[in-house]
Design brief:
heterodimer; A: 117 residues; alpha+beta; seven-stranded mixed sheet; 2 helices; B: 133 residues; five-stranded antiparallel sheet; 5 strands; 36% helix
């Protein structure tokens, strides 16, 4: 299913997280390995969610959602969605692939860890 | 070149090439994005970007200027066309080339930028790590 303008995606806690057109355009241009289904899936069913050591300029939380990604050569990869909290709600800041999780307090960890997608 | 700036987080991503990539943390403020195919660096991400982009040795002055323009434009909620008009003596296309790092500005253009955005310190594009302290 394709992206809907300013789409609101429910995360694993049922919270509504907005993916703005600007963020989606950026993700498509700079992280072509991530598609809209990846973003929906990482938010709805993360392997782990960590608190970023950084906060927004308003002093609010930044949460980093991770999901394991299967790599054809067996390398470690994670699909990542970064969510920022603002006065007006929760928003996707960016999404990407990384080779490791960033250090940070764990906010959520899925049981039966290790089931990749 | 593609530059993204999230003003709420003071976070920037600067990409030189479009390619499927993965991030590898260089330190707690800078991440390098590497091509999945070649393992060569195709971009960087900067936390605390207003500081880290400009003390970084990873970017040229032209790329730093492009990032600075993108930051100003995002903070002031301007389109590229509006930014070009605000600077005054440059065309929309000229502005696009500056913000994409394709072109170095003339001194006259830098002067116009400084007039248009008086609260911005344009000298930061020439900063280096050794002078950051």
């Amino acid at each position: 299913m394709s992206y809907n303008k300013n789409e609101k995606i429910a995360d694993y806690r049922g919270r509504s997280i907005e993916l703005s057109e600007d963020s989606w355009t950026h993700i498509q241009e700079s992280h072509p390995e991530i598609n809209i289904e990846d973003i929906r899936s990482v938010l709805a069913d993360p392997l782990e969610v960590r608190e970023s050591p950084k906060v927004t300029l308003e002093g609010k939380l930044i949460e980093i959602f991770y999901q394991t990604k299967i790599h054809s050569e067996g390398k470690t990869r994670f699909k990542v969605v970064v969510v920022k909290a603002l006065e007006s709600g929760l928003y996707v800041s960016t999404a990407m692939t990384t080779n490791a999780m960033k250090a940070g307090k764990t906010l959520y960890r899925k049981k039966n860890k290790g089931v990749g997608r | 070149m593609n530059i993204y700036y999230d003003a709420d987080r003071d976070y920037a991503e600067v990409f030189f090439k479009k390619a499927a990539n993965y991030g590898e943390e260089l330190n707690d403020q800078v991440t390098a994005f590497k091509s999945e195919k070649t393992d060569k660096i195709v971009g960087y991400a900067f936390e605390d970007a207003s500081q880290t982009v400009f003390v970084s040795d990873l970017l040229s002055p032209a790329v730093k200027l492009a990032t600075l323009l993108r930051m100003i434009r995002t903070k002031e909620k301007l389109t590229q066309e509006q930014a070009a008009k605000k600077i005054g003596d440059i065309t929309f296309r000229h502005y696009q080339r500056l913000e994409s790092g394709e072109e170095n500005p003339t001194l006259a253009t830098i002067e116009s930028m400084m007039r248009a955005f008086p609260n911005t310190d344009f000298s930061v594009i020439l900063k280096q790590k050794s002078s950051a302290a």
